[in-house]
Amino acid sequence: MNSVTLKELGLLLDGDIQGDETLIIDSVATLEHAKAGQISFLANSKYRSQLEETQASAVLLSAKDAQDYQGTALIVKDPYVGFARVAQYLDTTPKAAVGIHPSAQIDASAHIGEGVAIGANAVIGANVILGENVQIGAGVVLGQDVVIGSKTRLWANVTVYHDVHLGQDCIIHSGAVLGSDGFGYANDRGQWIKIPQTGGVRIGDRVEIGANSTVDRGALGHTEIHDGVIIDNQVQIAHNDIIGENTAIAGSTTVAGSVTIGKYCIIGGSCAIAGHLSIADGVHVSGGTNITSTMREPGLYSSATVAMDNKLWRKNTVRFRQLDELFHRVKTLEKNLKTPD
């Protein structure tokens, strides 16, 4: 277990210490569940009632919240960001692999950089390039011509098809599939004719892709995921999509083919995005939203209705179908009621 003094954490976060800077901190915890030796944080005012009762040795606080707190605190500009950095600093997550396991199958043409670790039963295909300190978990399969940048981690049972490139410092979680075929077919009098997906996938630096998510290869050209993108579990990214820098996509969202999503977007969980449209930089989308047209301006967009009693929902569904008729009736009434100037 890692342990540091509060003074060290203060230097790490460029924060001010209120109280004993020699306290030893070994982990992070919530205000409610923290014990001695742990540091907690207050980032949401609705949890302020827990602040006076917490057993944490120290708490990350904003300057405003620290004014009325009598305990030991590390005062920072953004307590939640501070918590994230401290959690990284004290992280005890094991490595995806250590050393090169004798059961790993490595093609003779593969280039393995210094410090690479490859787990049991992994398969490394022809002409694969692994940068320095890459970690390849047990059961990972890397197809021909895959390139993986330094310090990237692939957890157990990730599958990477041919001609997929990943940048540096990426994290790919178990069960993810990168470079599978896009859903491309032509219909010849009722018979589906498969269109070979001849593009690849290009993933930038510091990208994280969640468990059991899929990123399809391009039909022609590449599917692109740019630097700093974070993708949650069970997300579908279809062929030839382009995801801009530092965009976040939450779980169970489906993005159809040839969609361009801008930079710094936040896409909530269980969204469905139709194909061949664009989303501007800085768009935020509420969970459960169906996106069927291009979004040209930043802002918050929503479409899902809230849960309600089934009988009421059924009535409202019928009324929703009547909206167009109601609209024309109102327009007719307005026209009839309008008086000349």
How do the strands and helices of this protein lay out in sequence?
Blueprint: E1 4-5, H1 6-13, E2 16-18, E3 24-25, E4 27-28, E5 38-41, E6 58-61, H2 63-66, E7 73-75, H3 79-89, E8 105-106, E9 111-112, E10 117-118, E11 123-124, E12 129-130, E13 135-136, E14 141-142, E15 147-148, E16 153-154, E17 159-160, E18 164-166, E19 171-172, E20 177-180, E21 185-188, E22 191-194, E23 201-203, E24 208-209, E25 214-216, E26 223-225, E27 230-231, E28 236-237, E29 242-243, E30 248-249, E31 254-255, E32 260-261, E33 266-267, E34 272-273, E35 278-279, E36 283-285, E37 290-291, E38 299-301, H4 310-321, H5 323-337
Total count of domains: 3
CATH architecture of the largest domain: 3 Solenoid
Oligomer: single chain
The end-to-end span amounts to: 82 Å
Radius of gyration: 26 Å
* Gross morphology: flat
Portion of residues within helices: 10-25%
Label the structural class: alpha/beta
Could you state the CATH homologous superfamily of the largest domain?
A: Hexapeptide repeat proteins
- Give the neighbour order of strands across the main sheet: 8-11-14-17-20-25-28-31-34-37
Proportion of strand residues:
25-35%
Number of strands: 38
**pLDDT < 50 runs, ≥5 residues:** none
**pLDDT averaged over residues:** 96
